[in-house]
Amino acid sequence: MDWVPVVFVTFKVLVLGAGMYFAIKWHYDQAANGQRGAVLRTGGKMAAVFLLSLLCVGLFAFYLSRMVGLDLSFP
Q1: Which tens digit of pLDDT belongs to each residue from 22-66?
Q2: In angstroms, how far is CA 14 from the centroid of its own chain?
Q3: For the whole model, what pTM was predicted?
Q4: N or C: which end of the chain has fewer CB within 10 A?
């Protein structure tokens, strides 16, 4: 049972990463020559917002679990 979260998280990261890559690539290919920089900037901003929100959710989950008394120490 210890391998299940590792496999699912890895799969989720790969699928979301591939989806983000192809979405940005499609928008980049659709843009006119003058708009390619704007598309790249927007893609970078979206990736930064995603990582920041992921960090916030992780920190909130850690704080909440510590608050209710869960033991989060590694063996």
Answers
A1: 988 887 777 766 677 777 888 889 889 999 999 999 999 989 998
A2: 10
A3: 0.53
A4: C
Domain residue limits at 58: 3-67
Amino acid making up residue 18: A
The string of DSSP letters for 10-73 reads: HHHHHHHHHHHHHHHHHHHHHS-GGGHHHHHHHHHHHHHHHHHHHHHHHHHHHHHHHHTT----
The burial class, CB within 10 Å (0-12 / 13-18 / 19+), for 1 is exposed
Q: How far apart are CA 62 and CA 46, in angstroms?
A: 24
C-alpha closest to that of 39 among 53, 56, 26: 26
Our count of domains for the chain comes to: 1
